[in-house]
Write a structure and sequence with these properties.
491 residues, 14 helices, 21 strands, binds nicotinamide-adenine-dinucleotide
């Protein structure tokens, strides 16, 4: 077997070794012995160098007209699109999701890059009348400075692209710290932006552990904003350690799908299968709870079990595969642990629950029923193909069940009754509610994010993403030729 390629950090426009002299490997979770490359274990000094590079080029990048910045992004979008197949198959090898989903991930990166390229000609502020004569009032957007972007592995191109492209179009410079489970995808994204003509120093990437590189980014006093997507506990640590800088957090979920007894059950079935077992349950928006009305419980359980039985586990590059592996051994063990917890809590295991005898970090698609809202399997984020079914008598109980968790990212309701749908839309505490569709399927021009322990008010996507990565400056232009005092010289 060929020696795996040794990939580098990207600092000030150059691909360089880490000062640490250490590396780590990225493997294929479907075939853990296959090493895709070795990557630099970054350290504090690498972070310092990257921040210095980003700081020194900031005035030049900020001084570049936003439409010109947009043209570089547009070139990057084209390059991503041209390389979609190659990027998607590498992604499947690095993180295991089936290749159709990897194509979707690449497409999402293309979409957000194209969208943010167009933002270069908008970046709207607003104007409003003044209370005084001969005075104009308006707002403009300012970049923040150096942004530290810390990303998870489950959308290894899309999530970095959501952050990087938005930060860049607003005129910020970037230090990107990707997940150590998917450094190859991260490297490909940085290579693409470099090829698209991004000036040196504008985007820097330091790979390495969260505790070392991630924390160094978070604590760095010359990093003006940190935008993080990942686990709730990591987000809480970041919020504590970041000091006086902007922090954006997109964290976990325990999302639920409500199926009312008037729903189109075949449609709901497809939604639950896609939401619960797509990406092997490893999406922040995965549907890990199904809340069904009592009347249809037995029937819907049978439909689910029949469908789950047909799901084919395997290597995501094979066209017949429905469900790929989990990202690593720890994730596999976590799903197994929660199956035991569920059994001990008295939930009934309907199907799955085991690590199959396969090479790779696979786990059987699993369904529990007779769950109650307070069970740990119905409360905690498992991030694996383990779904809990809870039955309720009516819509009020369904909404209470959905709202019973600490998280608030995505939610869905299947019903033909518009009134019930509207009740759900207005009463579910979550950043996203889907009607007659699964918990999954965000589009890049709409806001994305959650409430409660999922987020702290920031949203990515569209104009709300621009808000995360820009400061608003209020401008008053007084052309009266005299000192006019607001609130005093009125009337
Ligand atoms: P994670 O929190 O373990 O890691 C995310 C990133 O944070 C990685 O780059 C990691 O190296 C870094 N990190 C870890 N410890 C750090 C520290 N002390 N300081 C700074 N950085 C640190 O999460 P993960 O396992 O990569 O991703 C899965 C989690 O992400 C799940 O909880 C999932 O719900 C969540 N997620 C949320 C969204 C969303 O938009 N809300 C999207 C995708 C994933």
């Amino acid at each position: 077997m060929n020696k795996p390629k040794n990939y580098k950090l990207f600092i000030d426009g150059a691909w360089v070794d880490s000062v640490s002299g250490e590396t780590f490997a990225s493997d294929n979770p479907a075939r853990p012995k296959q090493i895709l490359g070795t990557f630099q274990k970054g350290c504090n000094e690498d972070v310092d160098k990257a921040v210095e590079a980003a700081e020194s080029v900031f005035p030049k990048w900020n001084g570049t007209p936003a439409p010109e910045r947009g043209l570089i992004l547009l070139r990057a979008a084209h390059l991503l699109l041209e390389n979609k197949e190659q990027l998607a198959s590498e992604m499947t090898m690095e993180m295991g999701k089936v290749v159709q989903e990897s194509r979707g991930d690449v497409q999402e990166a293309v979409d957000v890059t194209e969208y943010m390229a167009g933002e270069g000609r908008r970046l709207f502020g607003f104007t409003t009348p003044s209370e005084l004569r001969k005075k104009l009032c308006l707002t403009i957007r300012m970049p923040i400075g150096v942004c530290g972007l810390i990303t998870p592995w489950n959308f290894p191109l899309a999530i970095p692209a959501w952050k990087i492209m938005t930060a860049l179009i607003c005129g910020n410079t970037v230090l990107f710290k990707p997940s150590s489970d998917t450094p190859l995808c991260a490297t490909r994204l940085v290579e693409t932006l470099d090829k698209a003509g991004l000036p040196k120093g504008v985007l820097n990437m330091v790979t390495g552990s969260g505790d070392d590189v991630g924390m160094a980014v978070v604590k760095h006093e010359n990093v003006g904003a940190v935008s993080f997507t990942g686990h709730r506990d990591t987000g809480a640590t970041i919020l504590r350690e970041a000091g006086l800088k902007r922090v954006g957090l997109e964290m976990g979920g325990k999302n639920g799908i409500v199926v009312m007894d008037d729903a189109d059950l075949n449609l709901a079935l497809e939604g639950v299968i896609w939401g619960g077992y797509g990406t092997t349950g490893q999406r922040c928006t995965a549907a890990s709870r199904v809340i069904v009305q009592e009347k249809i419980k037995n029937k819907f359980e049978r439909m689910l079990v029949n469908r789950i039985r047909k799901l084919k586990l395997g290597n995501g590059l094979k066209p017949e595969t429905d469900v790929g592996p989990l990202i690593n051994k720890a994730a596999q063990e976590k799903s197994a642990k929660y199956v035991e917890i569920g059994k001990n809590e008295g939930a009934k295991l309907l199907i799955g629950g085991k690590i199959p005898a396969m090479d790779g970090f696979f786990f059987e698609p699993t369904l529990f029923t007779n769950c109650t809202v307070d069970m740990r399997i119905a409360q905690e984020e498992i991030f694996g193909p383990v779904v809990s079914l809870i039955s309720v008598r009516n819509l009020d109980e369904a909404i209470d069940a959905i709202n019973s968790v600490e998280y608030g990212l995505s939610s869905a309701i299947y019903t033909k009754d518009i009134g019930k749908a509207c009740e759900a839309i207005t009463r579910i505490k979550a950043g996203l509610t889907y009607v007659n569709s699964s918990t999954i399927g965000s589009e890049v021009h709409l806001p994305f994010g959650g409430v409660k322990h999922t987020g702290i008010g920031t949203r990515e996507g569209g104009i709300e993403g621009i808000n995360e990565f820009s400061e608003t400056k209020t401008v008053y232009i007084d052309y009266s030729g005299k000192l006019q005092k607001a609130q005093i010289d009125i009337g």
